Amino acid sequence: MSRFSRRSFLRRSAVLLPALAVPGWAMGFGQRVPRIGFLSGAVPSLVSAFETEIRKLGLVSGRNLLLEMRLSRPNTDDLAKHAAELAAMDLDLVVAGALPQALAVRTANPAMPMVIATCPGMVSNGFAQSLDHPGGIYTGIDELPPGVTARRMDLLNVVAPTHKRIALLSTTPGRGGHETQLADAEAAARRLGVAVKPYRAASFDELKSALNACAADGMEALLNFQGGLSLANRQLIVEFAAQRRLPAIYQSAFFVEAGGLMAWAPDQEEQYRIAARYAAKIIRGAKPGDLPVVYPPGYQLSVNTTAARTLGLTLPASLLAKATRVTG
What we know:
The chain has 13 helices and twelve strands. It is α/β, with parallel strands linked by helices. The protein has two domains: about 5-145 and about 265-290, Rossmann fold (3-Layer(aba) Sandwich); about 150-265 and about 300-325, Response regulator (Rossmann fold).
C-alpha cells in the first residue's frame, strides 16, 4: 500500500489540482507541453502506481508534463463533474481508472482519446473493434478474460461445497460485462450442481437494496462481479457477508484487505502501470487504436484466514498452497 494515509492522500490531491492549472506553454517557453487527464476512484496505491510509472518513463508533472488529476469520492456526483471538467480541457488523452470513468468521459466528449486501466468488455462497450486491433481513439486493459468467472465459482465451491444458493452481486456498468459474467456463472453452476441468482445495482441505494434482497432470499454464498461501485463500497459488502455468514469471493484483493474471505483477481497496480506505459507511448506519437487491448498479466488468489475462521470454514491445504497472498 501507499506510504501515505487515505486522508493525507486526499488532502495532497486537493492541493495538487490547482497547482497544475497552468497553461501548457508556460513550462515549455512557448512549446506546448503534453497534457494527460487522470480520472479514477480515490484508491491511493493505484494512483501511486500510475504516478510512479509515469515518472520512471521520464515524464515529470510540472516539468515536461501537465497531469490533470481528478479523484472521485464514493457515492457522490464527483464522477460526472470531474469527467465534464477533463472532457472540456485541451488534453492529449485521459487515463480512466475503470469503466465508469471511461463511460462518463466518453459521454462528455466522444472525441477524447483514452487509455482505460480496467474495463470488463472493451469490445462490447464500443471502445475497441477487436482486442488485437482496437482502431479508433481508445485502448487499455480488458479485465474480463475468458474463464475468470467460472474460476471464481470453482474456488468458492472448494471452500464452501455445501452452500448451494449463490448470490451474484453485479455492479458492472455498460454493455456486455454483466451478461458475460452471468452466462459464465450460470454455466459453472450447472456443472457444479448449485443455483445462482443475480442481484444488479447501479447506485449506492440500489446496492443496499440488492444486499437486502440477497438476505431476504436466504442466499448461502456470494460471488462479486467486476464493478467500480462494489469496489468503492467494499467495506459495506464485506461486512454484510460477515454478518450474514456468507462465504464470498471477490473481484479484487482490496476486498480481502478489507476483511473479505478471498479474491481471484489481477494485480490492479500493474494494470495502472500498464496504463501509464500506454499513455507515454501515445503522447510520444503512438495512436491508441494501434495499441492492442491486453488482458491482465495474471490472476492471483488471495485468502483471509481470519474471515474463514469467523465463517466456520476450514480452508483446504491445497487451496492455501495456491494462494499468492494469505492474510489473517
